[in-house]
Amino acid sequence: MDFSIDNGGCVETSRPTNHANPAYVEEGVIHFCVPNVPARVARTASYALSNAILPYVLHLSHAGLQESLHTIPELRRGVNVVDGRLAHPGVAAALGRPVEVTL
Q1: What is the mean pLDDT of residues 39-59?
Q2: Looking at residue 19, what DSSP letter applies?
């Protein structure tokens, strides 16, 4: 399932499809690449996103950024830049630059 297809796709064999013909097989892999699927169920998607991020928002509001990054690994893995300095190894590598901040 490629939910990033409206931003270029997440794999080389992704290509946009539609709800009338949503799936195809390429290189032995079943692909589902309908753009902006959450918009079809906007209310449900909004509730799901809110419920998924609420624990992080609450932790951030109570503990602050530094403590939250120290305590929550999945939050830390989502940080690309801190105070204008590169923190994510993948982003740094893609830019051919060193990691400037270790979290």
Answers
A1: 93
A2: S
